[in-house]
Amino acid sequence: MSKQESRILGQDEPDGCCPGLLTAPLAEEQAEELAKVFKALGDPVRLRLLSLIASRAGGEVCVCELTPAFDLSQPTISHHLRLLREAGLIASERRGTWVYYRLLPQMTDRLAGALSRAVDGPTPSGTAS
After folding, report:
1. Residue 84 to residue 3: CA distance in whole angstroms
2. Which residue among 16, 40, 66, 125 has its CA within the 20 to 30 Å range from the CA of 97?
3. CA 92, CA 62: separation in Å to the nearest integer?
4. Each residue of 68-104: pLDDT tens digit?
5. Do residues 89 and 71 make contact, with C-beta atoms less than 8 angstroms apart?
6. 64 Cβ partners below 8 Å, 6+ apart?
7. How large is the C-alpha radius of gyration of the chain?
8. Collapsing DSSP states into helix, strand and coil, what is residue 103?
């Protein structure tokens, strides 16, 4: 895990042993960086696009197959895909006239880790475990 990735998750150690956001407060910079990724996921179209890409057999999908799944223009779909790419959730590769997209599982794994708490860890006040 890179130093920047550790900062995003509120971790200082490269092995990920330090607490995520549910067990320790985030610094302002960490919160801002992590919020960018969550913001990219904060739109139903982008969530569906991510799901379509992630669930694709073979691990990648052509933009030509994504666009017909929505009642949106191709430039709008490209805009949403760009935001997902900039957030580090997907990667793209141009092959001729088409662009193919694939999930970057390391980012979704990091997000899951940031939202996880240790099984024996503290439960936030007023909530059931």
Report:
1. 21
2. 40
3. 9
4. 999 999 999 999 999 999 999 999 999 999 999 999 9
5. no
6. 98
7. 17
8. strand
Which structure tokens are listed for 17? 């042993």
Paired tokens of 101: 């997209």
Structure tokens at 24: 């320790």
Whether the CB-CB separation of 61 and 100 falls below 8 Å is answered with: yes
CA nearest 56: which of 99, 101, 87, 106?
101
Query: What pLDDT shows up at residue 111?
Result: 84
Domains and CATH numbers, the chain: 3-114 (1.10.10.10)
DSSP string, 67-98: GGGSSS-HHHHHHHHHHHHHTTSEEEEEETTE
Q: What is d(CA 121, CA 75) in angstroms, rounded to the nearest whole number?
A: 45
**Cα 67 to Cα 7: distance, rounded to the nearest angstrom:** 35
What pLDDT, in 10s, does the model give residues 42-60? 999 999 999 999 999 888 9
pTM higher than 0.90, yes or no? no
- In eight-state DSSP terms, residue 48 is H
Q: Which two tokens stand for residue 4?
A: 């920047």
